[in-house]
Amino acid sequence: SLNCVEWSLLPPATKEMVAQAEQLKGRFQGDPSFEYEYTEINAEDAERLFEDGKEPMIKEEARLVATIEQIDRAVGIIPRGAFVKTPLGSVHENRNFEGLSLTEAKKLSSYFHFTEPVNLKNKTLLEKADLDPSTDFLDSLEHDIPQGSWTVQLEKGGTVVVLRSLLWLGLTFYHVPMTKQYGYIYFGTGEKNLDLPFML
User: Fold this and answer.
1) N or C terminus: which one in the chain shows less Cβ crowding within 10 Å?
2) Same structural domain for residues 122 and 43?
3) What range defines the domain where residue 21 resides?
4) Do 49 and 19 contact (CB within 8 A), yes or no?
5) pTM confidence score
6) 161 in the same domain as 133
């Protein structure tokens, strides 16, 4: 939105958009038509990005789309059991999900990345034996690298569990135990905290 009254959907992100946006540093300008220049870029990335001979320009709107995609992929999360996988492989919202207990809600292992699993494929058969294939089909937050990239806090006298990402500062996830209420929101600068390994 340019006036906070009329709103329109952003276009879907492409792999090229994400690759170009990852090379950019600094905050957003606030102008969707602003064009970024590639200043600090190494030779290998430059060759990959400029393979057609002309220097690509990325507008702020495309950078915003790519940044949202990166945030959703890296730190978009759901509580365990909120979605189920059928024997045929399709994933659906679990209508029987009544929320996590307070004890479970305080554990990082009770939350999953809501994206295609990566670490799950690397588990041994012994580790997979303890998992329920209908609910444990995504990557758990407890195995995120670096360790300690999430904070878990209790708010409102222990009635709301809040998780905050230290990788994407400004990402806040909430869950009200014993209810279906959960979600996440991002209020940040759009910059990944690349110094996180040195801060832990």
Assistant:
1) N
2) no
3) 15-74
4) yes
5) 0.79
6) yes
Same domain? 170 vs 184: yes
Residues 35 and 66 placed together within one structural domain of the fold: yes
* Identity of the residue numbered 119: N
* β-strand pairing of 83-85 with 91-93: antiparallel
**Is 195 in a helix, a strand, or coil?**
coil
Helices (H) and strands (E) in the chain, counts: 6, 10
Mean of the per-residue pLDDT values of the chain:
83
CB contact burial 137-164 (16+ within 10 A = b; e otherwise):
bbbbbeebeeeebbebeeeeeeebbebb
* Tens-digit pLDDT profile for residues 166-195: 999 999 999 999 999 999 999 988 888 888
* Residue type (1 letter), 182: Y
* Proportion of the chain above pLDDT 90, given as a percent: 31
What secondary structure does DSSP assign to 44-107, as a single string? Answer: HHHHHHTTTSSPP-EEHHHHHHHHHHHHHHHH-EEETTSEEE-TTS-EEE-TT-----HHHHT-
Q: How many CB atoms lie within 10 A of CB 63?
A: 23
Q: With respect to residue 1, please indicate whether it lies within any of the assigned structural domains.
A: no
Is the residue at 94 inside a domain?
yes
**pLDDT tens readout for residues 20-43:** 888 888 888 888 788 887 665 555
